[in-house]
Amino acid sequence: MVLLTSTSSSDRARSSGSALARRIQPTSDTAGRVRVAVLDGGSLHEAEGDAALGALPDDLARSNAIVWVDLLGPSREQVEAVGSAMGLHPLILEDVLEGNQRAKIETTDAVVHIVLFHLAYEAEKTVLTEIDLVLGSDFLLTVHDGSWDPRVSNHLRNGLESIMAKGPDHLLWAICDDIVDSYFPFADRLGDAIDEVQDAVIRKATPDTLERLFTLKRELIEIRRSAGPTREVFNQMTNREMTLVDPEELVFFRDVYDHVIRLTDEMDNYRELASSTLDVYLTQVNNNLSVIMKRLTGVTVVLAGIGAVAGVFGMSEAGAALGGAEAGGFWLVTGLILCLAVLAGVFLRKIDWI
User: Fold this and answer.
1) Does 47 lie in the same domain as 74?
2) How high is the pLDDT of residue 133?
3) Best exposed site among 9, 155, 236, 302 by fewest CB in 10 Å?
4) Distance, CA of 269 to CA of 161 (rounded, Å)
5) Whole-number Å distance between alpha carbons of 341 and 303
């Protein structure tokens, strides 16, 4: 399963108020792709397609052979064929087919089933790809949709054969480490984006800045929602006794667990930073409102003084007074009004109200 979290305003139509998420099917040229790698007698053999799927029972029957099966957007028939060859429980197959799981780990005497999410940033969208990993005594099964390719991980690029030679549990570690490490570039980008928004808020609080801030907070929630259960997965792996994981491999999984802890701590720090940035924004808005109210109050004070003098001296007939016997008094009161207005303006300016 692939979740898309858009950072644009047009992609925020989700009823829960969080970032957009939907099921994305693999493209036609990759749908149902089957890849099988078999390490037997120190020699690595790789095959793809229906032929590789048909030969899987024989590959698994080889003694001392290590088998890795990678399924991209598989059909129900393909999953059931692989499950039958590996002897997987029907409930595991249903979880693999249905998707929409949260990060989790389930163990039996025969297999370990792990669900994780790989994170990528493509075309201004955060792409979360659900990955099912099933570890057996001599095999590893990976099932996923989307464009994620486990063979481009840093560990596997440096030599799949050397990784598989150390056992399927070491191959599981290599893939898990790549999945967890995929979060850190996004975390760095997210941290930089929050810093930029914070600087923009300090310079001038605008509705666009607020919209961007809420988008970042939604992304934080989505990633934290994925990283949180992932932390529990590796906590259980490093503290629970599992016969399918060599004790010597636990040090590698503890390293992954440390990475997840660091990631979740960073997400929590960024969430606090985003919340404090929102507080700064609201403070800026309140300050701007206070400035506007002070200026309006200043104008009111000036006009109130003018109105008071005009009302006391009866200035409602200004046209008659201009040419009549009361012209001197008119101009005297007018001058008084102007003086009061100027004095009020100077005073308000001095106390920085206008």
Assistant:
1) yes
2) 96
3) 9
4) 40
5) 8
Alpha carbon distance 80, 94 (integer Å): 9
Residues 305 and 188 in one domain: no
Query: How far apart are the C-alpha atoms of 191 and 266, rounded to whole Å?
Result: 9
Report pTM. Answer: 0.75
What does the pLDDT look like over 51-70, one tens digit per residue?
999 999 999 998 889 999 99
- Tracing tokens 């941290």 back to the chain, one arrives at 191
Which of residues 283, 311, 337 is at a domain's end? 283
**Pairwise CA distance, residues 197 & 344, whole Å:** 40
> Cα separations (Å) of 76 from 93, 95, 97, 139, 313?
9, 12, 7, 20, 95
pLDDT < 70: residue spans in the chain: 1-31, 123-124, 147, 308-330, 353-354
CB 341 within 8 A of CB 306: yes
Q: Are residues 342 and 251 in the same domain?
A: no
Per-residue pLDDT, 21: 32
pLDDT of 283 reads 85
Same domain, 308 and 166: no
Two tokens at 61?
A: 């029957």
Task: Looking at the structure, tell me whether residues 331 and 188 fall in a common domain.
Answer: no
Domain that holds residue 341: 292-350
Looking up residue 192, the CATH number of its domain turns out to be 3.30.460.20
C-alpha closest to that of 270 among 336, 315, 222, 204? 222
Cβ atoms within 10 Å, residue 8: 10
Amino acid, res. 282? L
Tell me if 114 sits within 8 A of 260, measured CB to CB. no
Angle made by CA atoms 254, 86, 65, in degrees to the nearest 5: 70
Domain count, the chain: 2
**The domain boundary residue, chosen from 229, 261, 283:** 283
pLDDT of amino acid 218: 87
Token pair listed for 255: 């390293």
Stated as kind and residue range, the H or E segment containing 151 is: none
Same domain, 80 and 110: yes
Q: What is the dihedral of CA 328, 332, 333, 338, to 10 degrees?
A: 140
Q: What is the pLDDT of residues 111-166, one digit of tens each?
A: 999 999 998 877 667 788 899 999 999 999 999 987 688 877 777 877 889 999 99
d(CA 301, CA 225): 55
Say yes or no: 56 and 106 in one domain.
Answer: yes
